[in-house]
Amino acid sequence: MGDISGNADLVVTWAKQAHLAGAHLVAFPEMFLTGYPVEDLALRRSFIEASKATLRGLPERLNAAGLGDLVVVVGYLDSAHDTEDRMGRPRHSPQNAAAVIHRGEVTAQYAKHHLPNYGVFDEYRYFVPGTEPCLFAVNEHTVALAICEDLWQEGGPVAWAREAKADVLLVINGSPYERNKDDVRLELCARRAAEAAATLAYVNLVGGQDELVFDGDSLVVDASGHVIARAPQFSEALLVADLGPAPSGTQAERLSDDEEIYQALVLGVRDYVTKNSMSSVAIGLSGGIDSALTAAIAVDALGSDSVHGVAMPSKYSSQHSQDDAADMAARTGMHFRSVPIAGVVNAFQTELELSGIAEENLQARVRGTTLMGISNQEGHLVLATGNKSELSVGYSTLYGDAVGAYAPLKDVLKTVVWRLARWRNEQAIAQGQTPPIPPNSIEKPPSAELRPDQLDTDVLPPYEVLDDVLDDYVEQDHGASDLVATGFDEALVDMVLRLTDRAEFKRRQYPPGPKISFKAFGRDRRLPITSKWREFPTPKN
Q: Does residue 537 carry a pLDDT above 60?
């Protein structure tokens, strides 16, 4: 994001590889020059002008590299000709655009026609829509151009491609990952190819950007929906397809559902850390499943030498939890230290004399302060270890276990945490490696260990039940009456929904984390903190 000159260098580098592979046309993803999504940077004239100036210099750079005959399509940030600021129009009239470059010139330009305004997208806030089609020739074949949402909506570029009898509908995308989206994309591409009566080439962004992860999964399908070529998921690649009389191309193996989620989390962590110029992370290792999975993801993303685990036992920490934390570090080769916190907690207690929940939270906050102190002293980025189930119902401590710069499991329900941990260990065994996560961390009942013999089920339903309710309430926006009608107990629904609604202020202060579900907290789900509206199983007078 924002590395406009560096991204232009990538255009030249990858265009050269495409040329060497025999390509006549090479396409780069949506907003490739600027990064995506640009958010309010789109409203800065200086940012718009930097994008436009870099684009103007690209044709000559490509010519100088001997790539003048190659047709290059690249996404960038443009502005409409009418840039007069007025009410109801984004400042400086920015446009989500694509340029066609050939023989030292920008030969055609296109502005995104359909602007999404749902989920994580706010494009009506940032962009002015385009109204004209873009058609260009490659070796006497007609190519129609579209950008991302143009493919998801009826009319516009798909219809224009059919009317023009285009041979290829080329779609450049910045489509974020969420579970099972690869199946939806393939079905969409096949359907739109048939509607356009053209081969459809779909190129998508790869990489992590704050809370979004872009998974690639670029593909080419013919007019009958047959897949000609498909790129790997979660890794940069040059996908080459021959659209001659006998169309052909490579097809990368598809990932399983669990591997897909896991790779999304790994990529999200890796890019968040490295793109923010950090080289190492610190994690509070409790011996539990959440910190163990977070550590495994961090080691896979950054390497064991860049991961620092910190055990912080209190007087309530069980010996088996301390042993499991040390075992986790030994299995992965990450750095490990133990910093007992009982003395620090006692010092606070001497002055404050806290009890109950306040005493429990004090322990969590001492741990948070310890991690942040190590972070400041040694330069590590702290990863929070909470999961979506806990975050939903407020089962976390502000300035305690919620501290950190990034939260890998923020959008991962607790039942999925267990599933991913088992999957990761199974993968290691299949490859003849040591499973990274101690089996005891997976199998033992979850506990915050902030008081004697504490279990999560003391205050929460079993996670299988809780996650079932949360999936319907948070992701599907079902109300209380809907949940009761589907068979959930009224008292259970009332408790879970009240806890979830009251925890909004905590979620607002939680670190960002990678989106892997249809509706993640943050960009996807935005509710008022101060609100008297409550869902109830039955109407109350």
A: no
